[in-house]
Amino acid sequence: MKIRNPTFGRIFSSSGAVTMISRLFIASLFLSVLLQREVSAQNSSSASASFETEAETESSTEIEAETETHQTNTTGKCVMHGICGDMEGFGDQTCRVDQPPVPLDEEFHDQLKGFCPELFDKYGSTLCCDSDQVEKLTESLLYAQSLLGRCPSCFSNFRRSFCEFTCSPHQYTFLNVTEVAPTSSDALEMEPDLPKTVVRKLEFHITKQYMDDTYESCKNVLMSTTNGPAMDILCGPWGSYRCDAEKWFEFLGSTSNGYSPFTIVYRAVDTNAKTSNIDFSGIVSELVEGLGGDVSELKGGFEPLDLPTYSCAEVPPGAKKRCSCVDCPASCPAAQPLPPIPQEWTLFGYHGMVVIMILTFVVGAGAIILMAFTNYNYDSSEYSIGSVDEVMPPKCPMDEVDFMEKMGKNSEEAINRFFRSLAETCAANPWAVIIPGIILTSLLCLGIHKLEITTDPVELWAAPNSRSRIEKEYFDETFAPFYRIEHLIITARDDSMSVYHNTSGAKEPEKFGPVFNKEFMYAILDLQKEIEAIKTDSNITLSDICFKPLHPDNDHCSIFSYLGWWQYSKEEIDKEVESTASEGLFDNYLDHFKFCSRNPVSPKDSTSLKQSCLGPFGGPIDPNVVLGGFIKPGEQHEEPPFKDSNTIIITYVVNNYYEKEKNEKAREWETAFLNFMEDYVKNKTPYFMEIAYSSERSIQDELKRESESEITTVVVSYLIMFLYIAVNLGQINSVSRLLIDSQIALGVAGVTIVLASVAASVGLFGYLGVPATLIIIEVIPFLVLAVGVDNIFIMVQHYQRSERLPSETKAKHIGRIIGEVAPSMLLNSFTDSASFFLGGLSGMPAVRAFAFYAGMALLFNFILQFTCFISILSLDISRREKNHYDLFCCVQGKSVEKMKYDKGILYAGFKKVWAPLLLKFPVRIAVIVTFFGWLCSSIAVIPYINVGLDQELSMPEDSYVSTYFKAMFDYLSVGPPVYFVVKDSGLDYSDYHQQDLIRAGDFSESLTAQIFAASKISNRTFVAKPASSWLDDYIDWAANENCCKYNIKTNDFCPSSEESRKKCKSCGLSGKLEDGRIPPELFETYLKYFLQDNPFAECPKGGHAAYSQAVSTKRVDENGTAYRPTASYFMTYHTILKSSSDYTEAMKEARMIAANITDTLNKETNSTRHEVFPYSVFYVFYEQYLTMWRDTLQSLGISFITIFVVTFLLTGFDIYSALVINLTIFMIVTNIGGLMYHWNISLNAVSLVNLVMAVGIAVEFCTHIVHAFTASKETSRLERSRDALVNMGSSVLSGIALTKFGGIVVLGFAKSQIFRIFYFRMYLGIVLFGAAHGLIFLPVLLSFVGPPSRRGH
């Protein structure tokens, strides 16, 4: 039934006595009066002013008289009153009436006054609502209060229009019923006196100013459970992004919101709009009254309701506080200016360090060239730094030798004597040395079976005493470890499956991404069902291990998938209902999606479908978490275009336990899940999608698989080095002695000693219980080969180049040779071992373990080489002297040629070609300038080396995890969660002042306010959303009378969803609040109730789902029911993080925010014990990068200091040698840093280990050359440099550089990106740069500024 709007025609229809002529006459008279007034106004301004004043006075008098008459003679009129049954789909229906207001039952006065006190002050108790309507009104306002109540002015503005709408005795002045329906027959049968019609649609005339002001006061209010605006729910399909005052009130009046029993059409009247200067009211009133009409009907009976409003920064009547800063930006104090973004240091518009190094090179190179040419023919003493070809001074008597030189002479002679004696003993009694050596080494190697290999990334890279590790342990113990996550990222191959649907009545249908194609959705649905059906050999299913947030009331697993919006039901997806918004259109799954993407916490959408947006597990499904690919790189959107998604993300949340053994079931199921997904991706993936997947155990499994898969690569690399050593160690002078002089067995024995030393080191630490890492197994053999094999080459080649003296036996010959070379070997090995042992001071477990294992392996290698290898060398010499074959030592050859002593091809090449060329004066100058320029260029770029390890590099290229990482970086639209943890420090949450330091309130520096402020500048802070606050929601929960309930029989907790009054009764907590706060004596009593209560429509703030794990509690009294909160966390999200620098900066910013919150808590409580820290699951992995430069400089600094001290002591207190060695090693390591920049090798734990190893290998390239230089008997620096290069250079080249080169090349073909980048590239750089500095730069440097010969020698 339609009701027509009143029109002016009704004014005349009631006066039959007035003829048409008289009506025309009166009308013309009316127009004449108007015209006369207008002309008069135009002709005389003074008269006009006088006239207007008089007219206003008359009008005012008339209005006052009318008002007085109205108040005296009328009591108002209702257009609706009471409940007239219900209607299917719309609930209780309101009766349509046309009657005066009636007194409200006295027992409901207090209930109505609780929300609408102004009604009684304004109208008394005679109203247009009955007890049933009061209950419905308070129920609706309770729900609204749970969403908006945290902002008093917002809720005050909001409720007043509903109070007037429902109960005002003057409804007829602003409400116009335009559509009614018959009262249901069932209702009339039960109560025959009910009105015969119910309201189906009405117009609500209200001022636009009220609507705008109310919206402005409410638009920023947040729901802490979702970290999002309350408008996401209250503004229906428009959400907070597209909402405005008009759309908000339109949704509030729509039956599609699920709460309004009939349609309310808000007619906004702009009372501030400009109107004509002519006042018609008095004339029209006179005219209508003269015609017998009703003035109130002329006005249409509708005067727009105009209510006072308060901005969110004001305190409304009846309240004691204003909106918090979190909910009202106008309440926030002026923000402190952000510190400026650190700017890159520049000079002349270029990188500052680059400019400085260019200037340094120009000045330094000029100085070098000038000094070199100035001193070229300058004849001066040995000690002149600039001299080039100085002659050694004559030997001085011993009484002229200073103390330091004497100490040096004595120490070197002592070392020579000791090792000569040791070598003679071992050579003379080889088996007496070899057999005990084998036994002791074997016993040490047996410890390998007790070895524990650590693959847990946390154990590898986070020190036990590091901040992130300590905070992780606190979080895991206090709450629970972060959930185990099983992830699927499924992307449509192309855009061809996109769908179109008209969801708004527009001419052009909207386009939806391919993931909304039903075929795509059905395939995902089938996949999810198969995954949920996975069962292990032990019959473990997903349901056995998954996280169930509402258990035991809801047994569904926490699964985040966009199909959860349709309850994982094909029937729900296929449902279509004719739209009530647009005639001829149907609401379908796409309409439901659009609503849920903006209102994920809504229990019912506003479409005709009336479907829930909550997942089956009872929680909201955030579209940012389940959809991806809707934001292209570089784009930013105020409202994310979720409908453009081409990717969906499915997340299975699995319980994680602090006790690792409890996670075995989950690990078993994850194995089955990974096997299933591997088969599905290979054999069952539909043609239109691509799937990336990962589980909690994936990274650890793949790291292990990666290391195992590269064993072949490592073995081949080592075999090539072994073959080179075995082949090149021998000295073949003729074909007839080929099988005799090859010395392959000796090479194999040398390599075996290297491997035995590594095994002994691993076994020893196995006995000691020190866990190993896969890096140790992969890197240390390479290191020991580099450091140890050159000793073998030097021993063997020096023996080959030194003929036996007539008076020497074989043992004495070996002893003399070893005595000569032992000091440089001791210097080298002891320096390396000491630097590695001190490197164990590093806080990083992987680096520390590597340092200990490497130091011990080098020590064992040195001991075995100077005992067992010398004994084996003695046996091999005996074999060769007896002409026995190399590999078949029992077979004697027929050669009659004697064993010859030859220096070899490399030696000849160095002596005849390389040394003469290198040590020419122009070449030396060019070398110094070139290497100085190289050093400057490396220093210039080192500050710009990237720090971190991008996750995809840690996986093999053929790994499914690499595919997952790539998909994650390309498609995910939200970052990881971050928890701000308030530690158990005695904070009294029941105290109002201390509550204000945490919750969203008037205090602008509270915890939630600071996180909220950070979320507003997410591009700087990496905080994406405000934090969820259990404290705010607890207070909101307590204010809702439908929430807190107790069991009548047990006096214990009862769910708020329990409707039976026989079982449960309200706690009455809402009526006991003090200024909206929970009294301190009740705060701890009902905290557990809140944490156990499941949210539902009438009590949306139940804390079980959101906060059951967020608050750690302890019982106040041993037998009491009150619980005191100890530690708690407040969760938010980081923004999208893609690179290592993003993760590191996000952690740094979160820690700064937490530090500010900590300072505030301590300052406001006059304490020092409170602490807040941020925690996210990735912090423990990325904290190392915050201090990576410091750790790197510390580790390298320890190594350099150790090398300097040991070198100074073992070179006989020769500070010149120590400085030259350290300078050269510094240049090698610095240039490797330059290589890292140019070859995209980031600085992280792996490259740090390699840099520490580089120091050890660099020592090899330097110490032998420097020692040979100081021991040379030549008379000038130039000649000593030539002598050292010729005699030691070939051994260094063959023993270190060439040995490693072949093995390194093999690493370049590894599948692992870590092997190719951090091992192949860095190892290649270490060997090539070390060889270049040791065999090119160092001899040239020594020829200019080498240490002098000791006069005491």
From TrEMBL:
This is SSD domain-containing protein. SUPFAM superfamilies: Multidrug efflux transporter AcrB transmembrane domain. The chain crosses the membrane at residues 348-373, 711-732, 744-768, 774-796, 850-875, 921-944, 964-982, 1193-1213, 1219-1239, 1251-1271, 1291-1310, 1322-1345. Pfam families: NPC1_MLD (PF22314), NPC1_N (PF16414), Sterol-sensing (PF12349). Residues 45-73 are annotated as: Disordered. Belongs to the patched family. It is a multi-pass membrane protein. It catalyses: cholesterol(in) = cholesterol(out). The keyword Signal applies. Residues 53-66 have a biased composition (Acidic residues). It comes from the Eukaryota. It is found in: Endomembrane system. It comes from Orchesella dallaii. Residues 710-875 form the SSD domain. Keywords: Cholesterol metabolism, Disulfide bond, Glycoprotein, Lipid metabolism, Lipid transport, Membrane, Signal, Steroid metabolism, Sterol metabolism, Transmembrane, Transmembrane helix, Transport.
